[in-house]
Design goal:
2 copies of one chain form a homodimer. Chain A is α+β, with helices and mostly antiparallel strands. Chain A folds into 2 domains: 5-53, Arc Repressor Mutant, subunit A (Orthogonal Bundle), CATH 1.10.10.10; 65-139, 2-Layer Sandwich (Alpha-Beta Plaits). Chain A has helices spanning 5-16, 22-29, 33-45, 78-90, 115-126; strands at residues 49-56, 65-73, 94-100, 106-112, 132-148. In chain A, helix 2 packs across helix 3. At the A-B interface, helix 1, strand 1, strand 3, strand 4 and strand 5 of A face helix 1, strand 1, strand 3, strand 4 and strand 5 of B. Strand 3 (94-100) of chain A pairs antiparallel with strand 5 of chain B, so a sheet runs across the interface. Chain B binds a DNA duplex (17 and 17 nucleotides) through residues 21-23, 31-35, 37-39, 41.
Chain lengths: 156, 156
DNA sequence: CGTGAAATGCGGAGTTA
DNA sequence: TAACTCCGCATTTCACG
């Protein structure tokens, strides 16, 4: 499926506000609501959206510390990786994880209440996994989603 | 503002699908649409949501490679940091960035079309910033948003 | 553009302190 | 009574074919 400028505009607008109504989108694109509706349906059906996520105000919910945790496993094998990912799904506090090539096997974005919770997360929860080789954490001062892509390659 | 189980449920549901309608939320919570609407309005007004983001199917848009790039700056000073963040906003391909404490100052989640685009991004775009000390990249095999938080501390 | 459905706001009922 | 949270209803607005 080929995209044009209007399609790209829909993608961009929803990246920044996934709860925009069809009406609101139509106003932004300067087209009729029905036309916009069709386009949005087409984009959705063609699987251009992976997910629509509300990101929460973590501080307000008591998660005062966010950290990025680098994890190296003893064996970077399929089975170990699978069971580690499975473990990640059971742990509380994981906002997002990256599975990586290279020295660091996993990068975890984690939200915790306070330093004690962090210590417990790392020493009790995470280290519990027996193939952990190494863990290092960095406090996140700030993080932001940018969505600043160039779409030149999909435009007709 | 105190939250109860219903509020938490709204937060969780929208984390997983930010385009859920009020009606759909109401059905899930098993309360009247009007009630649900009031709660959602209250949560929104009280700033519990930071953003609603559509995450796109990057592969489908021609971004075949995602990388995590560690950046160390020569000087980790306010002015340098500010202008680097400003620069990040102008670069194409940055999905998300983290500003960190520790050895690594910035972690960038970047989406590119192919190895050549990546090379150009790093050598031409990023290295253009004069306070770059060090850059290292890791290919992202897989990354996922989990939203697996425990809300025990905000529940009444 | 039309129809059916949903969003939205309000008054009132039930509950608790 | 005051402060809630809920619901049903009425109106406006929107989704969707």
């Amino acid at each position: 499926m080929r995209l044009d400028q209007k399609d790209i505009q829909i993608l961009k607008l929803l990246q920044n506000n996934a709860r925009l109504s069809n009406k609101e989108l139509a106003v932004e694109l300067d087209i009729a609501p029905s036309t916009c509706h069709e386009r949005l349906k087409k984009l959705t059906k063609s699987n251009f959206f992976k997910a629509f996520n509300a990101s929460l105000n973590l501080e307000k919910l008591g998660f005062n510390i966010e950290v990025l945790i680098r994890v190296r496993l003893k064996k970077h094998e399929r089975e170990v990786v699978n069971s580690f990912i499975q473990k990640l799904h059971t742990l509380k506090g994981i906002v997002r994880f990256y599975h990586l090539a290279g020295e660091t096997n996993f990068m975890l974005h984690v939200a915790v209440e306070n330093p004690n919770t962090l210590r417990s997360f790392i020493l009790d929860e995470l280290s519990d996994f027996k193939y952990i080789d190494n863990i290092e954490s960095s406090i996140i001062y700030h993080n932001k989603c940018l969505h600043n892509l160039s779409y030149t390659n999909v435009i007709e």
